Amino acid sequence: MAPKMISTDTQRAFSDRVQQPRRSAISRRRPAFTLLEVILALVILGAALAIFGEVMQLANQNAVGARAETQAQLLATSLMDEILAGSIDDSPANRQPLEVDDGVRWIYSVSNGTATVEGVYPLVVEVEQDVEAKFNPVKFRLVRWMSTTPEGSEASEEADANSQQQSQQSQSQSSGAQQGGGASGGAGSAGGSQP
């Protein structure tokens, strides 16, 4: 038997089929990242996470500092109120411990200043954390102006001033009545003798 001759069209179709899987394998290849692109993306992600971690640490430090400042302000106000109420003496005190339920120890100082204005003096209460200076302890200072005259003597001074004023008024009224009373008394007696 003689070999059959295959037409050129058939040969072309057959050769296209044989070569077609190779082309389709190449054309079906999905686009992917190269190793360099993956490494670059990981470096960018790592840098972003490091920056985010620093920002979070800074925010945490600021929150702790704000909490400590608020705590110091509340302690100083409370201590000043206790001094004004009389439960704590307002005599000078230096670095006395405060009883606080906190992880950090707190201390307070009380001092009396001098003023150029007569009748008042500044009462200074300072509250601070009892930690080393390298940890930057929080301090809060509260100043209240106090009267040098006690409240009881101030009230008695006002009462004395009021009584003096009343006595002066009564004296002026009585002296005015004596002067005016002589004239009216004469007229009254003259009027009484006519009928």
Task: Considering the chains and any ligands shown, give keywords for the structure.
alpha+beta, 195 residues, single chain
Tell me what you see in this structure.
The protein has helices spanning 8-27, 35-85, 151-193; strands spanning 93-98, 106-112, 120-129, 139-147. The chain is α+β, with helices and mostly antiparallel strands. It has a domain at 61-154: 2-Layer Sandwich (Pantoate--beta-alanine Ligase, Chain: A,domain 2). The chain has a 4-stranded antiparallel sheet. A hairpin with a 7-residue loop joins strand 1 and strand 2 (106-112). The chain is rod-shaped, with a radius of gyration of 49 Å. Mean pLDDT is 79; it is low at 183-195.
